[in-house]
Amino acid sequence: MTASYIIDAVRTPRGRGKMGKGALTGLHPQELLAQALNALQRRGGWDAREVGDVIAGCVSQVNEQGANIARNAVLAAGWPQDVSAVSLNRFCGSGLQAVNFGAMGVASGAMDFVVTGGVESMSHLSLGADGGGQDGGNVRLRERVYQVPQGISADLIATLEGITREDVDAWALRSQRQSARAIEENRFAKALFAVKDPATGAVLLERDEYPRPDTTAQGLAALKPAFVAMGETAVGPHGETLDGIALAAYPQAKHIQHVHTAGNSSGIVDGAAVVALASERYVKEKGLKPRARIRAMATVGTEPLIMLTAPAPASEKALRMAGMKARDIDLWEINEAFAAVVLQTTRALDIDPERVNVNGGAIALGHPLGATGAMLLGTALDELERTGKQTALITMCIGGGQGIATIIERV
Fold first, then answer.
1. Which end of the chain, N or C, is less surrounded by CB atoms within 10 Å?
2. pLDDT-flagged residues of the chain (< 70)
3. What pTM was estimated for this model as a whole?
């Protein structure tokens, strides 16, 4: 197996994921991904006929995002009909998994040039829009393991780790401040392209729409916990509440401290991102100048009720494969699904927080589920180049108790 190289990465700005309120809500999700494909192709100047496959993550694959959105986006982009495409779903890790599958393809020699990434229009299809919930409604599976909603899991993690409301709010405030600085200093400009109305050519959105740079500690502290009522909901066959089910599995918690709010959890947004990958042979043959290489990739499964603790073991697995230690990584992108996830991962791996999410994260910028992983990789790549650093690790928690991690290295 040879190397897999990152040629380029682009993304849309993230638009507010509320119908009629966000700048991208009037755009069909296929068109959102199609514009990302064309922006990538225009920057690289390569012939789309040479793309071996398009691999795109998308979580809610129903209605507008059903019918193999990746293939329809290729057609919507006007790319040659013989360019194949596939859509995949590994929940929040989908965009990064698409990159990893593409990297496997070019490294193995099965393909030479592939475009990967993801898309999610959460204004069109909100959380849980596919109707599957956590377990597809399988009652027999629930007898084996009851997968509580992620907000309950995040609060359970905070309780077990002794992470307080003040801790999660402080991280949320940091995310807002770091993202505000990054936007002010145009740190995202290299990857961003303006999304346009396909009918008129008018610009719909040029920069991330979700951040709230005027966020204060007092404002965050005033927000009510988001998952108290959910935790009190009776769902079990004998009237067990969601909190009760979680506590039955983790009795040491005694009582779940609900610390997560709308202000310290990831934002609901629309967006798309794509990454071009090439084999070593293709890079040499075409005289390309890759920006980085994929050094290691890993996924792991963990206990599915607590669900969100897998970024640490996934990162450890990737580090072992790369022959590295956590201290060898210059920059970390740990997806801010919930503030406690980042804090727990940082503690577990003994990471210097100053290396983590230096330009903010999903709490401030938003989390367009199927696209986020590819966005994080592009953000890490741009920041490595801006600062002259070498290595970055991107990791994400995933519903159902999984984690994913990818290590990239500048070349």
1. N
2. 1
3. 0.98
